[in-house]
Amino acid sequence: xxxxxxxxxxxxxxxxxxxxxxxxxxxxxxxxxxxxxxxxxxxxxxxxxxxxxxxxxxxxxxxxxxxxxxxxxxxxxxxxxxxxxxxxxxxxxxxxxxxxxxxxxxxxxxxxxxxxxxxxxxxxxxxxxxxxxxxxxxxxxxxxxxxxxxxxxxxxxxxxxxxxxxxxxxxxxxxxxxxxxxxxxxxxxxxxxxxxxxxxxxxxxxxxxxxxxxxxxxxxxxxxxxxxxxxxxxxxxxxxxxxxxxxxxxxxxxxxxxxxxxxxxxxxxxxxxxxxxxxxxxxx
Length: 284
Description:
- This protein is of the alpha+beta class.
- Helices cover 50% and strands 16% of the residues.
- It has eleven helices and eight strands.
- The chain has helices at residues 2-13, 19-33, 37-49, 58-65, 69-81, 99-104, 108-128, 170-177, 181-190, 202-215, 262-283; strands at residues 85-87, 94-96, 132-138, 141-148, 163-164, 218-221, 228-236, 242-251.
- A six-stranded antiparallel sheet has the order 5-4-3-8-7-6, sandwiched between helices. A two-stranded antiparallel ribbon has the order 1-2.
- A hairpin with a 6-residue loop joins strand 1 (85-87) and strand 2.
- Helix 4 (58-65) packs across helix 5 (69-81).
- It is elongated and about 75 Å long.
- It starts with a helix and ends with a helix.
């Protein structure tokens, strides 16, 4: 009992630190208590490489981070082994792989992208009287994450959740066109053929990507369905790389009904992607 009274009296007379000061001290104590130097080094490397479009040599990384060469070497080897970082073909430069990009697809931001895209896609479908779908890169091919049907009697749609080809579709080529050379090479290395995929040589694919970059979108006859013209625009992230592709498989009416033309639908789809990109910029 005496000990309890003494403790209470001592608490009454002892001045407590200000709440803000206590919170700051607790945060500092936690930071010191739970330090993980190896994790910090790995994160430092990832954050540094995220700002470099063409990658860096090991010597450049060592100099930029102010660490010794041996610890950077060990950390880079582990990041390469876990596929967060990739070496150039010559083996002298390191760049981020697409693993973080792929992991982000399983994260709530992808859900926000879908939530933002669907109303805009619905408006396009109503105005253009065509269907449209949104696809993202996933493990060597594309995954359709959102799809909206047109309002008319006739239409064509790609089923939600479908995996479609990376190299023979308008969506795939558009996403490839807006990647760095290193990321494009890794995507192609991870690529596996889907059912019915049309083979294309590397030179033709590079030419197609250059054309898409020059025009800002893809518009070509479908290589899967006769009579369909695929319109695709890239949905760009803050770094200028495509995080998704919005595609309209355009069908031309040949009866007496006057529907929006191919040129009009192309303009509408471009405006839709521009509006979606404004949402993405605001979020960033």
